[in-house]
Amino acid sequence: MRVVTASEMYAIDRYTIQQIGMSEESLMENAGQAVATVLLERIQPAQRVAVLAGTGNNGGDGFVVARVLKSYGYTTDLWLIPPKEKVKGAAKKALEIYENSGYEVKNYIGNEKEFIEQLRHYDVIIDALLGIGINGALRSPYKEIIEKVNEAKELVVYAIDVPSGIPADGGAVETAIQADVTITIQYPKLSAYTFPTADYYGELIVVDIGIPPLSLEKNAEFRRLWSEAAVARTLPVRKRSSHKGTYGKGLVIGGSRNMTGAVIMTAKAALRSGAGLLTMAVPDDVYPVVATHIPEVMYHPCSSLNGCFAGEIDLITLDVDAIAAGPGMGRTMGAKSVVQKVLCQDVPVVLDADALYFWNDYVSIIRERTEATILTPHPGEMARMLGVSIDDVERDRFGIAKQFAMSNGVYLVLKGPYTIVTTPDGKQYVNTSGNPALAKGGSGDVLTGIILAFIMQHDNIQEAICNAVFVHGKAADALVEKEHSPMDVLATDVIEAIPQTLFSLYKKGASYQKQR
Ligand SMILES: NC(=O)C1=CN([C@@H]2O[C@H](COP(=O)(O)OP(=O)(O)OC[C@H]3O[C@@H](n4cnc5c(N)ncnc54)[C@H](OP(=O)(O)O)[C@@H]3O)[C@@H](O)[C@H]2O)[C@@H](O)CC1
Ligand SMILES: Nc1ncnc2c1ncn2[C@@H]1O[C@H](COP(=O)(O)OP(=O)(O)O)[C@@H](O)[C@H]1O
Ligand SMILES: [K+]
After folding, report:
1. 44, 276, 300, 429: most buried by Cβ count inside 10 Å?
2. What is the per-residue pLDDT across 214-254, written as a single tens digit (0 to 9) for each?
3. CATH topology of domain 6-220
4. What pTM did the predictor assign?
5. To 10 degrees, the CA torsion angle through 357, 361, 362, 368?
6. Which residues are noted in the entry as (6S)-NADPHX-binding (predicted)?
């Protein structure tokens, strides 16, 4: 499933109409019919429905929906918010068809009191007020209407395309429909995967209105959801003849006197995720503590200074296939020196947490690297690396991530709900798993371990990273689906949930793998 911006959606619509030859009216009819099909399955015949329609084509979708619901015998009122003469183009045509079918329109203007009075008597609201064409702050009377709908908590609200009032590409929200369900036309919009806008969507359902894929290919950048099916299809299969070396010799670098746990979690997660052989490089001060925790790894104690890396690491002797550096390593000159040495190795490198701290000192080395560099910042780290505010990052996660990954030639994993993986050539993948149980110290360390293990087992780095991000979130989902609340989950629980998550993904993937 692809994700689009509002301007891409307009370009897709235009292309479909002008180049492919479908009429705007037929697209609107398809949209309304597709939305109505979902509604007919969900709304009970005894429920009273109000369709609230605005000036634009979103209102046009609403006219079609109202007509279909009425034709199926649903008690449905169509409230037209603007004066009728403001409705133009395909929407005007849809309104004419509605009226020619013998159905009545309720005009909001002049009947504002009746509208407020009636609102208590409805069970379901269909929000066809504003779609992706919203411009600037909400104007009257939309603002007041939306506030009234949101106040009526007992109403079930279905939004068409986007909840009215939110910017389609994401950003700040002042007033917007708080939908229970949003039925999006053809492709989800960026705002469904950025915050705070995503909070207004409720359940997201995408309906197909028959736009040919060619129109998408011609008019939209590559941005897609990475779903469970994609993971199941691309998980690598172990060969019977394989041995531990087949699955990579990984190196995890991290730890300091104040933070011994992070690197342990990274290493455990890497082992649970299939790393063939794993070595941990830690400051020798903390080595005795770390070494008692994982019997399965080898150790490479490094010289330490005040409990942190002093700066030396013998990477030649270690001879590894991939490296993850950062968890708990501290923000010292010694740590910086270790990371610089790591970046000079011709193997894929994952940099996380403290290994991102001296970003400006690594940029030039990273741009010269030929092997993959994978950076996994959370929004705070991303903001710091770019010298902008966290709000700036959150407002334009997709744009910022793409610009950063392409200009530095890195794989960027911009974490958070709906983590975005961006490849060096600018392709973007939105993760669909995970929940707020992961909002706890240590979650990121676990992810780093999974990424390290997956990139060693998979030829395709993008698929490996996307799968790792998905498995991480899915493990947390599995925990809160049974036995855990979102509050009590620990990062170590997430590690222990990796086996059941992989087990179920492999079961789902078995049919794909047989086909290979
Ligand atoms: N072929 C297609 O294109 C298809 C499109 N489709 C559907 O069309 C939707 C996009 O339609 P759109 O472009 O007409 O915009 P839309 O969101 O309905 O509203 C625009 C109107 O809103 C108003 N308005 C704007 N800002 C405002 C504000 N801040 N506060 C208050 N009012 C504001 C402004 O009205 P005005 O100010 O001029 O009175 C403007 O005219 C899309 O989401 C999908 O549902 C589907 O049917 C598939 C085929
Ligand atoms: N509300 C949330 N929903 C989904 N995933 C989340 C949420 N909060 C955090 N995460 C995930 O948890 C991880 C947190 O990483 P990070 O902030 O680096 O943690 P730490 O540094 O404490 O290990 C990321 O993978 C992030 O995507
Ligand atoms: K809407």
Report:
1. 429
2. 999 999 999 999 999 999 999 988 888 877 777 789 999 99
3. Rossmann fold (3.40.50)
4. 0.95
5. 170
6. 57-61, 131-137, 142, 161, 262, 328, 378, 445
